[in-house]
């Protein structure tokens, strides 16, 4: 089974857009069985309606889509209520946070209650990681230390980087916090994925595309290439690691 752990469906205020029909065609083309879909930040900034939309899509295409909700932790109690509603009433399976697009630090005090609630509800938190100043890997590691019971997925391999210290800090974050996972989209160096699998185990490395910002087919090939030497590891990275994380049958 191939599961893309990181896709956004909807029309974002930041200019990118993906419809369910286009996504399903892409999945068919690249033989991806399931996509984890999360909301975009819409033009009206109301994430609740986007969470409703994601829930509707998971019900309509329940064999192909798994949904995560999206909240803005700066909204305090409102964000906590929305997480609860999304998990218990909408049937969504995780929480997505985007510090860069919403404008807060990943390890800010307002984020901690949201992540604690997700841990209590036994759902993972995916954080758009690698953005300067707001979601550096070590900031996410600091958050993971504050909520050690939470399972936190760092997108982009914990980095958006082609040089410098970001990759080293992503390694450091993974070493320090066993409750951190990485998603593979946009990773610059192929050996980074290989090294993470070797050092931390395939169960902590998840294939994701970050579509539509990135291309499902290209990102899938990246994950396949990095794990081609071991079929069992490849199956874990391409889907089974996420299945275990989401406690899927």
Task: Please describe what this structure looks like.
With 249 residues, this protein is an alpha/beta fold. It has a single domain (3-245), classed as TIM Barrel (Alpha-Beta Barrel), CATH 3.20.20. 44% of the residues lie in helices and 15% in strands. It has helices spanning 20-30, 47-60, 77-88, 99-102, 111-120, 137-146, 166-176, 190-200, 216-226, 231-245, and strands spanning 3-11, 17-18, 34-39, 65-67, 69-70, 95-97, 125-127, 152-154, 180-183, 205-206. It has a six-stranded parallel beta sheet with strand order 5-6-7-8-9-10. It has a four-stranded mixed beta sheet with strand order 2-1-3-4. Helix 3 (77-88) links the parallel strand 5 and strand 6. The protein is globular and about 45 Å long. It starts with a strand and ends with a helix. The model has no long low-confidence stretch (mean pLDDT 96).
């Amino acid at each position: 089974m191939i599961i893309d752990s990181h896709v956004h469906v909807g029309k974002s205020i930041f200019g990118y857009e993906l419809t369910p029909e286009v996504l399903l065609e892409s999945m068919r083309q690249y033989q991806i069985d399931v996509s984890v879909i999360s909301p975009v930040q819409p033009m009206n900034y109301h994430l609740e309606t986007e969470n409703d939309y994601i829930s509707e899509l998971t019900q309509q295409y329940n064999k192909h889509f798994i949904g995560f909700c999206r909240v803005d932790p700066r909204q305090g109690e409102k964000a906590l209520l929305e997480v609860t509603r999304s998990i218990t009433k909408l049937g969504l399976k995780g929480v997505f946070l985007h510090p860069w697009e919403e404008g807060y630090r990943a390890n800010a005090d307002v984020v901690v209650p949201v992540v604690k609630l997700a841990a209590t509800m036994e759902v993972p938190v995916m954080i758009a990681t690698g953005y300067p100043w707001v979601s550096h890997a070590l900031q996410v590691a600091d958050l993971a230390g504050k909520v050690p019971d939470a399972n936190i997925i760092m997108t982009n391999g914990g980095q958006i980087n082609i040089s410098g210290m970001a990759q080293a800090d992503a390694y450091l974050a993974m070493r320090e916090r066993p409750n951190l996972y990485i998603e593979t989209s946009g990773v610059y160096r192929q050996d980074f994925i290989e090294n993470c699998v070797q050092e931390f185990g395939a169960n902590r490395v998840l294939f994701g595309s970050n579509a539509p910002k990135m291309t499902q087919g290209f990102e899938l090939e990246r994950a396949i290439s990095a794990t081609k030497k071991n079929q069992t590891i490849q199956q874990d990275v391409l889907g089974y690691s996420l299945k275990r994380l989401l406690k899927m049958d």
